[in-house]
Amino acid sequence: MAAAPHNANPTGTYDVTHLRVEHYNGDVLGIGESQPRLSWIYTETPPEDAQLKVTVTRHVLGGETRTEETYLPTEPSVLVPWQFLPLTSMEEVRASVQLVTPNHEPLGAPSQTLRFETGILDFYDYWADFVGPSWAEPETDHRHLPLVRTEIDLSGKPARARLYMTACGVVEAEINGQRVGDDVLCPGWTVYDRRLECWTYDVTDQLIAGRNAMGFWLGDGWYRGRLGFDGGRANFYGDRIGVLAQLEIEYADGTRASVYSNSWDGTWKATSGPIVCSDLYEGEHYDARLEHPGWSQPGFDDSDWQPVAEVFYEPQHLECPELPPIRAHESNVPVSITRVDGTDMNDGTATWLIDFGQNCSQRMRVHMRGLNAGDTVTMRHAEVLEPDGTLATRTLRRGQQCDVYTSNGTDAWWEPRFTMHGFRYATIEGWRGELTADDIDCRVYHTDMERTGWFDSSNPLLNRLHDNALWSMRSNFLSIPTDCPQRDERLGWTGDIDLFAPTATYLYDTQGFLTNWLKDVRNEQKAWGTVPFYVPFVPLRVWAIPQAIAIWGDAAVAVPWALYMDGGDTRVLEKTYPLVTAWIDEVSGYLSDDGVWDREPQYCLGQLGDWLDPSAPPEDPALAMTEKTLVATAYFARSCAHATAIAHALGRAQDEARFAALTAKVTQGFLDRFTHLDGTMTSDTQCAYALAIAFGLLDDEPVRKVKAGNRLAELVRESGGRVSTGFAGTPFVLPALSMTGHDQEAYGLLMSTECPSWLYQVTMGATTTWERWDSMCPDGTLNPGGMTSFNHYALGSVCEWLHSRIGGLQAIEPGWSKFAVCPQPGGGLNHASTSHLTPYGMASSAWSVDDDVLALDVTVPVGTTAEIRIAGVEPETLGAGTHHREYTL
Known about the structure:
- It catalyses: Hydrolysis of terminal non-reducing alpha-L-rhamnose residues in alpha-L-rhamnosides.
- GO terms for molecular function: alpha-L-rhamnosidase activity.
- Its EC number is 3.2.1.40.
- It is an enzyme of class 3 (hydrolase).
- Residues 450-806 form the Alpha-L-rhamnosidase six-hairpin glycosidase domain.
- The protein is an alpha+beta fold.
- Strands 13, 20, 21, 25, 26, 27, 28, 29, 30, 31 and 32 form an 11-stranded mixed β-sheet that branches. Strands 8, 10, 15, 17, 18 and 23 form a 6-stranded antiparallel β-sheet that branches.
- Helix 4 (511-528) runs parallel beside helix 6, helix 9 packs antiparallel against helix 10 (702-718) and helix 9 crosses helix 11 (730-739).
- The longest helix has 22 residues, at 628-649.
- Mean pLDDT is 96; it is low at 1-8.
């Protein structure tokens, strides 16, 4: 053993950091909680007799500012209930916390002040109407998009001004010629006929005394744009778009003023703008010759604009968002720019191919220079190239991701507003002169979640694999958890996030993001009588009538459980409990008398089973080796077990007993129907054994569990280290091997570079996780199937094993109040590390091996404990602090 843990506090001060409200990161406007909970992190364990001083300064529009204080015990420090009177709509709060002695003397500096505000909490406080174009529009997609504007007079410079804004469609605002906010695709995608999020913007600095102008760009977005595959659906939620804008102003003397969008006072007008059409999948066409210079500035002549028309939307459905907005986070610089041979035109233009080095959700902002009025520049986007070096667009299907810019003869920087693209490569056609990196700013977009998980090792391929999963998550966490960011799909497939949720919650703080999405899972469950294949649900061809299917429907239980294990928030379980219980009760009615789920769904594909099993033909991804009823029963047994734990956490004793009995019944049915006494299974596949072991279905049969583990390891060896699982089995094959003492085979499977394998994708140059193991063939050609994507996160669920078994961090208790440090060196690695920002602070594990000595460094946050669990080593419990241990292997 090496040095003792470092718990000393040499400065004698005890600081508090990372003060946050609910699950928001940092300052936030427009929360929907009147009694929000606060959380914070201690840098050192507080003295036993210490107290926590909480100070809040509150201000309501038009009211007085007051400061309130209270003193609390030092624990709990996570999601501490609101200690003051409830907040009202549009109330501003500045909060700080500080450790003090029993006599209230400071023990350290106050935390950084946290600023947050409530949004409009009650629907009757919405006085604004939705307004949009008043002219007759085409009834289908590709409509010319409108601009909306108004001018207002203010008696003075505002001391505080908030714009509360949402849209049927998507919207961006400008005030006095300046952009409002830095988010995109507002208000995001929800089940619009049940709820619509209204966002809050601080516009104090943009308003002036006297005359001001407000302008709004409107787009079709998810509301009436064409959604989905097989031709998609346009106008799914409505065929008229409109903006709701409510401006609330407070002057220095405390007086107030309000401005509401409306169709009756004659000051709100609309006209066609320069966006000729815009589609989330197909791209945007912009004609700069149709611009209205100065249209969002005061004094603009809008005499030829038309009065707006009201677009009705039920105000009871408006709510404050729980998730962060979509923002640009970084830029990808071109790694190469190449003139495409043979594209020089008689007019002096050419086509250029750009490689940005990274596949992700992004948009190009291009400096349109040297163009004549009427010149057109066309930008196309794709994830990969064909073997001949051209953009691979076949796999995009209808979602061709093509932007077109028509110049007015003036140099300008341009980026599309109301579309999003998934790509690494792009072409720019119709460019005059030389194209350089200085002409392109390629911005990466995703929902603005806080990063919470990291991993590193001595194997560069493994690190790239982890980065690929990270990039795929970023690319697909765009308002909702989508399956892919590029082709004509981009839907919230429930099966994908079921499998990826534990990895997602480790890598980013997804509490608000996924809880927000789960609201719509419940909305759609109530509407359709089951959990649909994807949420929000849009009926499309063979997927038009939702049916209960395993894995996809089981997300109703798996996602809330993953959120709870990472965040420890029982309120998440309370909010989602009706979703959980309705799913369990529905599927329990489909079981045979022996507890097996063998009722076939009433649609052509039936159960999807081990979807995308690598042995399945390209055009039939559901044709897997593992029995579908086996997969369905195993997943439902897992859901029943999780539902039992959820009911226990919520104190629902009757439900807990009922779900426990159901778990036992389904598990026994699984054992009787699909396993043999010798440990083999009716489906002799990696998937079958992985599910039986990882879901604990063999835990009461220890001999059979050992034999099943041995057979799984044998199958892995027989496969030559190739993966033989699809969606259902892939997240669990490595954990199942580890659980039965076969880490060597697990490492062999992980480290293989033969197709199909995780690292095969990496060796083929992947920068994101592919949908299929062989989305690209070894010769560089694309999978011939009609469905393939190079940016799906589901197979990136392997990162859960990288974090827990290689890096060695695994939550034992919800919210990481207790966690295991259990690294298992292997696979030729000589060092690895992982860290996770828990609700209590940063937990980390880093190890290295040198001359058969394992050196381990562990960081345990204040308020948590860790257990070292290493094979052949006596277990040890660690308290808060940094620890170093050495073991002889």
